[in-house]
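During the second half of the funding period, the structural biology subgroup turned its attention to how the target accommodates small molecules. The most pressing case was dinuclear copper ion, which had performed well in the primary screen but for which no bound structure existed. We therefore specified the complex as follows and requested a full 3D prediction, including the ligand pose.
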Amino acid sequence: MSIKVPESDWFKPPAGSERLWVGVALVWCMIMFLAMPYWHFKGKQNATGESYAVTPAEFMERVTRFVETNKVGEENGIPIVEPSPGGDAYLVGQMWRWYPILKLKEGQTYRLHISSVDLQHGFSVLPININFQALPGYDHVITLTPTSKGVYQIICNEFCGIGHHLMTGRIIVE
Ligand code: CUA
């Protein structure tokens, strides 16, 4: 119960410049609201991809099987893996590395599965602007077609502990 009871006809509809500014704000809200779906389809931004539920152990099993079947080399103890064109490629984020090193062919399309086996990591490819979240429990699938040759560095852009700044990986496109 308030000390003073408001008058029963307290509401005064906006008039004059108040009416104008409420109108401007409303129109701007609608523009921003419509910009979201527009930019989703027309803007050159990251694809939304697909996600599937997977346990970290199960995902790690798939990664191990993928590495065993497609390994073509090794660098500093990290396997270099070449998936078959059009096939599945796996990349796992864990404290503090991206595993394994992927070797892809230019112009070929791959289904890249990304996940984490411990906590949240940020999959980020340099120097191009590709950013995805790697979350334990989710198999994030990106349909990827490399369009130019080169060595691409992967970093982690989600703070994940003391070794966060050392969490790197690589994708080689030939
Ligand atoms: Cu992983 Cu930061």
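Two results from this model are relevant to the next phase. Helices lie at 16-42, 56-70. The radius of gyration is 24 Å.
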